[in-house]
Amino acid sequence: MKTISGIAVAPGIAIARAFVLEQFRQRVPHHLVVPEEREGELERFEQALSAAEGDLGADRDRAFRDLGNEASKIFEFHLGLLQDPTLLGPIRSKIKDKGTNADFAVASSFSRIIDQFNAMGSQVFKDKARDVLDLERRILDHLMGRSQERLSRLDQPVVVIAHELTPTQAASMGIDHVVGLATDAGGRTDHTSIIAAALGVPVVVGCHAITEHVNDGDRIILDGHAGQIVVDPDEETLATFERTRDRLDRFLTETAHQADADAVTLDGVEITLLGNIEFPREIEQLIKFGGDGVGLYRTEFLYLTSPEEPTEEELYEQYTQSIEMLGGRPLTIRTLDLGADKHTQQQALEPERNPFLGLRSIRHSLQHLPMFRRQLRAILRAAAVGPLRVMFPLITTMTELKQARMILNDVADDLREEGVGVPSDIPIGMMIEVPSAALMASTFAKEVDFFSIGTNDLIQYTVAVDRSNERVANLYSASNPAVIRLVKNVIRAAKRRGVDTSLCGEIAGDITYTMLLIGLGLRSLSLVPAQIPRIKQVIRRVTLEECERLARRVGAFESQRRILRVLREETTRVLPEADGGWNAG
Ligand code: PEP
Ligand code: MG
Q: Which residue has the higher pLDDT, 19 or 172?
């Protein structure tokens, strides 16, 4: 029995056999093809290419069915790469002119490009390398006759173990059979993790070398709460985890049934529970789980999954569709948060040394005005259809906020001149996810209608830890006393100025933090829709007084570990059946 630790991305416990994705690049045969057989070899390559194209088309259709239109667009990008002459030309000439066998011509050409991208050091190029790797895998699968092992053809429950999963692999997994996922690389909030978590199975990433410790068919316990994988568990461990899994499953089923219950504390304090979404289709789930509206619509995902920038009309359609689905509940549209780990394909040609400290989010929008304005036009037009709030991400300085507001006003004026009715009372807010904004919250509060605290980024910028870097993940925690102090500062400043405040970082959906956040003064949280019922459970079991007492108590602690321990003890006290049902911490 072996236990491997990683970063918890999606909660739950999975128990199944391992399906280890092959490291196929090491086993590609290499031989010379005699001149008279080279045409045939080239034909073999062309056939593999069209078969890969066929696969991509099928995966695109599957993604469309399971994950929606936007997710399926990732495959359009890959289909585009398959037509790229700079990628395919050298392979054809190796086969035809040099007599290299097709398999090796593919592997060597792809691996040169992948190495070049990886050597550039930036995340942007690393992501591009993963896309190319994904294509290589598809073509080699056909050339080497291993297509039957493709993930999409799974026919029994498995925990998928991979060194690194590309976003397309994550989106093309047969969701009926994948019950868990673990990878060597990756961070909690990178592109692949977000898509994987949307599959609704427990996910652990950043396990360093799990692929070296697990063989195909090994029995695996994957604990998406603790971020741990047990390989080959003994009978006792297995029985313990089975009990925990069954208890958590029961807890989740019971809480899901209470979706319609009010999110009110024992002493009558109402908490608004909003949803974080990436695509409009998630609104259906949000309503099913009893959400009060959308507190964070990460609009950049539509751009990330499209080969080209979506048009104003496409955006307008998505936004109005969301408003209609919400049936009068508010929709908080966050303007583009591109850059860093959420880059566009266009940006891939401009690598940055420190993307998280670089041209991301509102900074990116302010330097790409035509694109920003197109999005704002779509948002403002949609505002006429139903309740909508606009939120700017990663505001760091007052100048940025004022510029963003000015552009918004300018776009509204243009629309009105064109005869489009734009409501004059659209609430304008900002994310508080940078320490400078948290520290200056009372100043920012004069300029906005609402705040949303983005702890995912606030943590990384406060403790100087890249949120997607598995090597320093132990330092990345909302229990860090400095993070708690900043959150408290924002809530207080906002309260003094009468500014509505919510919190939309991942901790909003982690029961560990619910009492603390209420105790610090929050009355609104925005979280992954599926997490709403269990957060509601906590709320319904506590009083404001005990939450405030807890907030005061942990406010005096200096150690992150002690804070986390006490928060978990208190949560277990009020909700014993959820013990172990927390996220990463
Ligand atoms: C955050 O930073 O907390 C947040 C909600 O935004 P994102 O995760 O999209 O960066
Ligand atoms: Mg953020």
A: 19
**Residues 6 or more apart from 36 whose CB is under 8 A from it?**
none
Ligand 1 atom closest to 453 (CA): 3
Task: Please indicate, yes or no, whether the overall pTM of this predicted structure exceeds 0.70.
Answer: yes
Give every CB contact of residue 259 below 8 A, 6+ residues apart in sequence.
288, 289, 290, 532, 533, 536
Give 151's pLDDT tier (boundaries 50, 70, 90).
low
DSSP assignment of 338-350, as one string?
-BTTB--TGGGGS
pLDDT of residue 480: 97
Ligand 2 centroid – CA 434 distance (Å) = 9
CB-CB contact of 563 with 513 (8 Å):
no
CATH number of 13-21+150-249: 3.50.30.10
Q: How far apart are CA 331 and CA 390, in angstroms?
A: 9
Helices (H) and strands (E) in the chain, counts: 23, 16
Q: What dotted CATH number matches 22-144?
A: 1.10.274.10
Among the ranges given (103-112, 173-182, 471-480), the one the predictor scored with the smallest mean pLDDT: 173-182
Question: Which of 3.40.50.300, 3.40.1190.20, 3.20.20.60, 3.40.50.10540 would CATH assign to domain 258-577?
Answer: 3.20.20.60
Q: What is the mean pLDDT of the chain?
A: 87
Q: Which residues surround ligand 2, an ion (CB under 5 A)?
A: 433, 454, 457
In one-letter notation, the amino acid at residue 145 is G
